[in-house]
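Closing statement on the FE2/S2 (inorganic) cluster sub-project.
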Amino acid sequence: MPSICDRNITKEVITQLEHAPQPPKSQLLEVRFGAVKDLHGEPSGIFKEPHDEAIYVGLTGLAGDEHVYAPHGGVERAVMQYDADHYADWRCESSPFPDLFQLGDFGENLVATGMTEANVCVGDLYRVGKEVVLQVSEPRDPCYKLNKRFQWPRALKRITRTGRVGWLMRVLQTGYIRKGDEMVLLERPHPQWSLLNVKRVVQGKSVPLELVQELMELDVLTETVRGYAAKRMLTATKRYRLVSAENVTSRVKHLTFELDEHNLVIHKPTFPAYSFAKIDFGPDFSISRSYSIVSGDMNRFTLGVALDDNTRGGSSYIHSKLALGDEIRMTPGSDPAGIEAEEKCTPDAIDNRIIIIGGIGVTAFLPSIDLCEAQNLPYEVHYAVRSPEDAAFVDRIPSSRLKLYAKTQQKRLDVQELIPPPSESDGRFTTRIFTCGPNRLMDTVREHAARLGYPPHLLHFESFEGAGKAAKDSKPFNVTVHDEEAGRSVQLRVEADKTLLRTLRDAGFDMTYLCERGGCGACKVAVAKGEVCHNGMGLLEKERGDYMLSCVDRAVTDIEILYD
Ligand code: FES
């Protein structure tokens, strides 16, 4: 009986993998190939016709089969197969055009029954007919064109979540195949690695990293899937131990952590630009805080943590209780909007970078300062502190670039003097302004830059105050949450002292988030109706009209959002 598949790989918590059952002996219901055609205004190789005659299968696929993009075919992806029984299931879903799901519509070359992503493994060898031998190379990586193909905006999402993606194969033995040929399993070197398990390990919500490592080391895997596994390894939460802690000022500790999972191999462990570390520590890892990376890579990294007068317990725990040898968990985060803005700031567009820092805000920009030095980019650092002794990490900033403003020496950082107006000759802005410090300093920079008319991509703010808390003077608002997958809507009230993110989590929504300061974009939700005031920097330019950051943005009317 066909049914709606309620599997959602992206929400799965995986602890171990079962071996896949063997597929039954299967017969080819159809053999298909075709030329590139128009798919609603785009060329696509998805249209394939069934053929009854014997078809030659060469190393790069069926004779006469075409692809638009080279990576969609070639030796590693010569032949595609899809389970015929999936189609009845698709027709039971909520697609507006269920009749578009007919045999061959996923663009497969081979149509057979009984073989699915759950009982076919990467590395499996199948004899097809008398001559051809195929080796399963990867689960298909579905793309947005499937939304067009099935005229259903949720198609790609549903295909990804259910894992009903189909698979690709190499041709180890060329020859002829035809409709009615048998497909027989010859060898199964990796019974644990069903195509479904590969997808679950790459996309699941949580997975033991030993499994990711094992997947990366599979010799039969394509480089594409190996790359996904490597990315998973990079971005996953990992265990570290504190190996050194020193006071760099009376209020700032410099902490070094080393990876405690020695069996893991992290390829390219460098933190990307604008990275931060979300660390979980304390009893049962119940305290979570995000800090900028001071130096190092994912094998060994350092943080600078200031003792916060308004602490919620995080910095005081680190200063007074976190001991050498203690375990923490670290999840790396990044700032895609910061990277997007940086890409626009080419050397011919920007002739200076002004870095304005208050207190421990210095840690936010140490990697950027290193980068400016390495690339010989012009920059200047203006650093406000209570006294010269409070200035942390000044040894990381060349003295020729640094201007220190110590309150005890009556030196005052004047934002209005620092931020240059646009060029008198052509009205262009050619300075990029970076700011990290207390909210008062950030607000002053924000207001002055706005008065001068600075474009947003030239302003970069890093906030370290009030993570997870609603800003002072926030107003309450009502939100209707449409849960598309569950087919329900829920009405919630976001109180003045609470963020939308915390409200959603308290109501049982499984939210993704990291920094809780509006910097990383991880907590974004789509806004279907209503007006929003954006307080964070974590949305890409193209996202600003359609999304809000649930950790910092506020609604100014009743709103409707999509939980997906
Ligand atoms: S969690 Fe990072 S922007 Fe909201």
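The chain is about 20% helix and 30% strand. With this model delivered, the sub-project is considered complete and its resources will be redirected to Aim 3.
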